[in-house]
Structure formats: structure tokens, C-alpha cells
Amino acid sequence: MGPDKKPVTGASVIVKGTTVGTTTNEQGAFSIALPANRDVLLITYVEYEVNEVTVTGNTVEVTMKEKDMTQNEVVVTGYGTQRRTNVTGAVSSVNSKTINAYPVLSVAQALQGRVPGVTVTNNGSPGTDAIVRIRGISSISFASDPLYVVDGFPTGNLSTIDTRDIETVDVLKDASAAAIYGSRATSGVIMITTKKGSRRGNKFSITLDSYFGRSEVTERLDLLNTEQFKQYAIAYRGSQVPRLLPPSLNEPIYTGTTQTYGQTNTNWQDEYFQKGNMTQHHIGMSGGNDISRFYASAGFLDQEGTTPSTDFRRYNFRINSDHVISKVFTFGENLYVASGEQGFDANETGSRTNLVNVVRIMPHMPVYDPTSNGGYRGVDATKDGGDPTNPIEDAELKNPAKRTAVKVLGTAFLELNFTKWLKFRSTFGIGLSPWFGLCPK
Questions:
Q1: Which of 96, 97, 130, 309 has its CA 20 to 30 A from that of 393?
Q2: What distance in Å separates the CA atoms of residue 395 and residue 353, rounded to the nearest whole number?
Q3: Number of C-alpha atoms within 13 angstroms, CB side, residue 76?
């Protein structure tokens, strides 16, 4: 029976050291045959402590005692204090080895395809933050970007963060993250912890990581050539465009050349897309002992885009350290400084982007015209049957843009070892007031 004298139904009764067992009925009663030399019963039930009873007669009466559940309670201050088995599916972690398995430029790219429930879409010029969605779109009227927290400090613009400095990335995917970080965490939280030195071995280490690569657009749309464009114009307009009829068809594409419009067949995709080189260098130093430890790094990144006038260059420096200044207090700081310069296409959004014009512009038009102002050739809507602009002229001459960002992110902390503080309090007669200040004992 329970402590309230009510019968416990379904309790498990097992002879200790054997597999012989039974369960209690609705009245809390049970019957079991004891093997020879076995007289100890183990009685268990959910929310009650295990009872170990020695049988001395033909009957036995057992009173179950409720478990003291307060010993197992946990005050949730953040996901870092919970057991992983309790939050499986709500938290995903990626370590530094996984993050740096490929030469990615940003944290978002490092998470791409590695975290369930997280969708990463690379969009825009080099240095542009990828679009990250945790379990889909969470708002129809506001942004659905997750909250980024670096070493406990909320921040944004992760393109300035060097992935070689990252120790772990934890993705909080459930709604309870808002209980920690408020409404900013509605779309999830990505927590980034950077590297620190080791207190073991009193060793100093240096790491050097260099990378060179090249990116290019390998897939192409199957666009019309000049002859196919003639057929399309007749099918669409019912007549040929004037530029592809004599005498314009046989005119030179610009003064001083013998090449005619009829002989021109420009592949605008090949002209627009380019191979982009990328180089990245990173040097890290770390060391430590029982008193102090540190991690310092410097990095450089230079990436060219696969379209004209797009690139990204970054310089970054980091130092993390912490020091045991007494038996009670530990002091530390994290400092990160980064400078980034991004070249981007100011016409990369909207319905008349350069990529749209790559698809729409006519194949019989040349890219360049040395006799024109600026050296590029444009389209005549009356003669050519449309009004797309020269995408290469727009990208290289009319719409290239630059943006520069300098980011300084620093945190400092003073850590109190509460256990050692209590010993210190007993020794010197100092106590803690309700407001966590010092007061006479």
C-alpha cells in the first residue's frame, strides 16, 4: 500500500537475484512462490522508492514510500545545463571538425546540409549572409531569421566571423528558446562558442591553415542562338525583327570592323559568368596552465565572385583568455575585431536584374563597342524587338557598389566559484546578503 494506506495496483514484485516475479492486483495483494534459499523481495513502482523486503513468514505487508522528486528537479537557465537525451530534436550541435571539413566562408554555409530542420540558401554576392530558416518560416509579416549568439552576446552579420575560430555551434530549434532570449528567439537560436586555450600540459601550440580554390557556374540554360532567335521572332511577332533583315543583317556591328550582325552569335552566359578565385589564411595560437589560458588568431580572406564586380575581402583578429585571480574569482574576456569590404551588384534584386537581362538579351548583339561611350554595346528596342540592357555593362560600369563593415565584439566576465566562496566565508566570517553583496556574518 501507499503512504495514504491505499492499495498500489500494478507494482512489480521480483525475488531478488532471480527472474521470478509478479504484480499486485487491484487490492494491492500478490502471491509468489519463493525458490529455495531466496527470501528477499524487490518491490518497485513509478514515483515510489524501491522496497527491499525480507520475508519471514507466509504473509508480508509493505508500505511504499514516495520518492523525493525535489532532488531531481532542474532549474532551466539555458540549454547548456540540460541533458542531451532530454532535448533530442530540439538542439543540434556541430563541432569544429565538422564545421571546417570544407572551406566554407561563413557559419551559415557550414551548417548547410548538416543540421536537421535547418534550411540554408546561399543568395547574393560573396560576403552576403545566407538565408537561414529553422523549421520553416515563422512569421508572415516580419523576418524569420534566427537569433545569433556568439559567446553569450547576441549579434548579426556572421560573414565577419572566421569559422576557424569556432569550437561548437548549437542550434536551438524549439519555441522554448524564447524563454531564454525573449521574442528575438521566435525563429530559433544559433549559439556559437569560440575556441579557448587548454589548461592541461602547460603547452603552447601554433596552427596554420591556408586554402586556395576556384568557383564557377557549371550549369547553363539552353538559350537561343541567332538562327533560333530568328525563328522565335517570327513565331512570336509574326514578323522578323528589323535588325535581322537586309540590309541591317549585313551591316558591321560597329564602325571599323568586318563582323556583321548576321555573323554574331553571342553566348551571354559565357560572357557574364567568370571563374572566381578564393584564398584564405588563418593562424592560431593557444596555450595555458592552471592559472591562465589564452587563444589568439588572425585571418585573411579574399574571394572573387562568379559575376562581374562581386568580391569579398576580410581581415579578422581574435583573442580569448581567462585567468584565475584567486581561489574564488576567475576573470576572462573575449575580443573580436574584423574588417570586411564587399563588392556587390546594386542591380541584383528586382524584375530587371543583370541575370534576367542575360537571359533576355539578343544573341546577335555584341558585348563591346569601342566606338561608343564607355565601350559597351546597347540594344535598340525598335530594331531588336526588345529593351534588355547590356548586363555586363550594368555590372562593370553602371551598377558596381561597395560596402565596408568594421565589427568589434567584446565580452568580459568575472566568475564566482560559489563552493570556494562558502569556504572563504566560513574562514573569514563574511556572509552573503539577500542582494548578493557583502555583509557582516
A1: 130
A2: 10
A3: 11
Residues 347, 209 contacting (CB under 8 angstroms): no
Beta-carbon contacts of 164 under 8 Å, excluding residues fewer than 6 positions away, are 100, 209, 282, 284, 297, 299
Residues of the chain with CATH 2.60.40.1120: 1-73
Choose which CATH entry (2.60.40.1120, 2.40.290.10, 3.30.2350.10, 3.40.20.10) describes domain 1-73: 2.60.40.1120
Cell numbers linked to 123:
543568395
Maximum distance among all alpha carbons in the chain? 120
Picking from 197-206, 361-370, 390-399, which range would have the lowest pLDDT averaged per residue?
197-206
User: Given this model, what pLDDT does residue 86 score?
Assistant: 45
Q: Which residues make Cβ contacts (< 8 Å) with residue 82, sequence separation at least 6?
A: 74, 76
Structure confidence at residue 140 (pLDDT): 60
Distance between CA atoms of residues 13 and 19, nearest Å: 10
Sort 41 into a burial class: Cβ within 10 Å, 0-12 / 13-18 / 19+. buried
338 close to 361: Cβ distance less than 8 angstroms: no
Q: Which helix (H) or strand (E) holds 329?
A: strand 329-345
Q: For residue 332, which amino acid is it?
A: G
The H-assigned helical ranges of 86-135 are 96-99, 107-111
Confidence band, pLDDT 50/70/90 cuts, at residue 383? very high
CATH architecture of the domain with residue range 79-194: Beta Complex (2.170)
Please, where in the chain does CATH 2.170.130.10 lie? 79-194
Please, which residues bridge with residue 339 across strands? 315, 406
Cell 508500505 sits at which residue?
A: 63
pLDDT digits (tens, 9 = 90+) for 254-306: 999 999 999 999 999 999 999 999 999 999 999 988 889 999 999 999 999 99
* Per-residue model confidence as pLDDT tens digits over 399-437: 899 999 898 988 888 887 765 555 544 444 444 333 333
Q: What pLDDT, on a 0 to 100 scale, did the predictor assign at position 116?
A: 82
Return the C-alpha cell found at 50. 524501491
Q: Which of 230, 189, 161, 8 is nearest to 87 (CA)?
A: 189
Asked whether the beta carbons of 195 and 96 are under 8 A apart, the reply is yes
